Amino acid sequence: MAHIVFYEKPGCGGNARQRAALEAAGHTLERRNLLTAPWTREALLAFLAPLPVTDWFNRSAPRVKSGEVLPEALDADTALALLIAEPLLIRRPLMQCRDDGSRLAGFDPAAVHAWVGLASPVPPASLDTCPSARHRCPTADTPTEGAAHAPV
């Protein structure tokens, strides 16, 4: 089993389900707050470089959903600057395996299973997206119950 550094948005229900799937497979997690981590170009690119620029973005972020930020219109340098300035836009979770240093962005169950293994097959929509367009994850300004106690 792997020890994984798990960068998440505290209070996010999707991240909670993703953590549960990893822990059910026997992995241990070191949880970190994606929104307050000291991101640099190099640190963020270590997770995102294998993906197309459009896949660097959290499609559920308010500025992306509203059309204010158009990932398809951004080059890598502009996208990185925007993600560092506004981490809420970063696709999550970002995960790093402590055992071998490998990294993964987002939670596509098939990719996660190939990377470190999951206990059982999981429908892709249940872990890589928010459960409802009506549901809004809390922002850094409005934590959910229990979020203040979560180690990050």
UniProtKB/TrEMBL annotation:
Protein origin, superkingdom: Bacteria
Coiled-coil features, chain-numbered ranges: none
SUPFAM superfamilies noted in UniProt: Thioredoxin-like
Signal sequence interval, chain numbering: none
CDD domains: ArsC_15kD
InterPro entries named among the record's database cross-references: Arsenate_reductase-like, Nase-assoc, Thioredoxin-like_sf
Gene3D superfamilies for the chain: Glutaredoxin
NCBIfam families: nitro_assoc
Family the entry assigns: Belongs to the ArsC family.
Protein name per UniProt: Nitrogenase-associated protein
Native organism: Hydrogenophaga electricum
Lineage of origin: Bacteria, Pseudomonadati, Pseudomonadota, Betaproteobacteria, Burkholderiales
